[in-house]
């Protein structure tokens, strides 16, 4: 009987120790990298955000990590899937973006400044636009709004509204702001203008709003969705009249330098953008440096 009791106690102790070790491995001993399989969910491979992320991988010596290329839509879908299950995930993110209004997220601190300082979005027009389409030029030069205004349009689109309808709704509800953009501008009769944009939610929102304002002034507006490179090239070679999606000084730095002198920068149309690595607030991690632990 005593041997049976001793054997049972020994077996129980072995199971207890085994369970304890497993919990430690999955809990306290598991690194952030273990929980996300050492993957960061990225976006389009040609985006400036991805270039900055690669720089961060080098700066923080994260050679064991992989940045998964995809698209902004795929990134958000992956984030939603993980967030709904309260699972850990790390994504490349930027502000303004509607996901910060929909989910409780935070940027990881970037002490090495791999992602640079906060950026601004610039309005870029082709050389000669002021002479060819002076009324449109003035509207583009006057155009300026903030992240809250942009966020309202982005959320409407995210909730299922057609971008044109969401833009029209915002223009109707913000007549005073639109009046500031169009003050002293005469209407035209079917003058054509072509504006490019990248398929980021922020740029879809802003470009459709500007397109609606110009249409109301009588312009025949064409909005063309492009990758960042062709968008900048189009303005530089004159096949596009403008874009209002110039993220500077970092994200589109290469394009701005490449085409220097072949476009006119009308300045900021929105201040306070941000790039970086983003995680749900429920994750116990605060800095990119924590990824090395």
TrEMBL record:
Keywords: Cell membrane, Membrane, Signal, Transport
Short name of one Pfam family: OpuAC
Domain ABC-type glycine betaine transport system substrate-binding: 31-173, 191-293
GO function terms (MF aspect): amine transmembrane transporter activity; carnitine transmembrane transporter activity
GO CC term, one of those recorded: ATP-binding cassette (ABC) transporter complex
GO biological process: choline transport; glycine betaine transport
InterPro entries: ABC_Gly_betaine_transp_sub-bd (IPR007210)
Signal peptide: 1-19
CDD domains: PBP2_OpuAC_like
Compartment list: Cell membrane
Protein name: Glycine/betaine ABC transporter
